Automatic annotation (TrEMBL):
This is Phosphonoacetate hydrolase. Residues 5-32 form the Protein YjdM N-terminal domain. Keywords: Hydrolase. Transmembrane segments: none annotated. The lineage of its organism: Bacteria, Bacillati, Actinomycetota, Actinomycetes, Kitasatosporales. PANTHER family: PROTEIN YJDM, PROTEIN YJDM-RELATED. Belongs to the YjdM family. InterPro entries: YjdM, YjdM_C, YjdM_N. It comes from the Bacteria. One of its GO terms (molecular function) is hydrolase activity. Residues 50-119 form the Protein YjdM C-terminal domain.
Length: 119
């Protein structure tokens, strides 16, 4: 556990806290990985590079656009192509789902990077 957590890079709030592998700002809601601030072993912490459907490298906090219509179990309507998804989080998901996000009207879900494009 990190005892001296860094201040928020967006709003400079000093009351940040840890949530799993992320550091979170309670004032603006910004989330980031503390390894990005220069902790030793950065190459091992970087992990695999996640790219969108056109080859752009994705990072935590990016905004993406869904490029094809997706069916959602239990929903009469799916996610339409062109839906904007803000503040994504890259994860090691199941069956190739490597983006964790919240979509308005659907809630929290995981997406494959092959069906999104960086906005």
């Amino acid at each position: 556990m990190i005892e001296n957590l860094p201040s928020c890079p967006k709003c400079s709030c000093e009351y940040t806290y840890e949530m799993n592998a992320l550091v979170v700002c309670p004032e603006c809601g910004h989330e980031w990985v503390p390894a990005e601030s220069g902790v030793a072993g950065g190459d091992a912490a970087a992990g695999p590079v996640v790219k969108d459907s056109v080859g752009n490298v994705l990072h935590d906090g990016d905004t993406v656009v869904v490029v094809k219509a997706l069916k959602v179990k239990g929903s009469p309507s799916g996610i339409k192509a062109g839906t904007k998804v803000r503040n994504i989080r890259l994860v090691d998901g199941v069956a190739g789902h490597d983006i964790d996000c919240k979509i308005d009207g659907f809630g929290a879900m995981q997406l494959k990077s092959s069906v999104v494009k960086k906005a």
